[in-house]
Amino acid sequence: MPNLPFMKLQDRVRGVDGRVTTGDLEGGWVNTDPAGAGIARAVVEPGAGGLVVRIFGFGDGGAAHRGEAAVDAVYAAGPEGHAGVAFTARFDLPNEEIDLHANLSKGLLILAAMTRYRDRSSGGDHFRREFFRRADA
Question: Which distant-in-sequence residues (6+ apart) come within 8 Å of 85 by Cβ?
Fold first, then answer.
């Protein structure tokens, strides 16, 4: 592959093989705000066709399983990157759809959830961003 024009050194593309590792994203993640109202914890793990993410919401009796979704795509920090630092997933739940965008920053997993309710009586569509630390940390 010929070198393409670039503005910054990190934007230079040299024909990367396209493989992105996911080890830094995998594992259990716990919300840094124990009094939160959205996602209490998340688990990212390998599945049959790639990564799978499970989310658990805050509930009266502890974290309640909300759903599981295949990760749509994993992203590196730049064109030459090999370590996965972000991913997207879509949850198609009975009462709602959630688009989940995740990225790693300074050892935390940041989850941005865009929620759309099928039945407007359940609440208004909303955006929520939450910060997670490793469960074993």
Answer: 24, 25, 75, 76, 77, 103, 104
Say if 12 falls within a structural domain: no
Collapsing DSSP to helix, strand or coil, 104 comes out as: strand
Domain with 44 in it: 18-134
Q: Rounded to 5 degrees, what are φ and ψ at 44?
A: -115, 125
Structural domain includes residue 113: yes
CATH no. for residue 79?
A: 2.40.128
| Cβ-contact 41, 135 below 8 angstroms | yes
Asked if 79 and 12 touch (Cβ cutoff 8 Å), the reply is yes
Residue 116 lies in a domain: yes
SS3 label, residue 41: strand
Pick 43 or 136 by higher pLDDT. Answer: 43
pLDDT at residue 76 greater than cutoff 60: yes
* Mean pLDDT to the nearest integer, 108-126: 89
The residues that bridge with 45 in the sheet, in sequence order, are 52
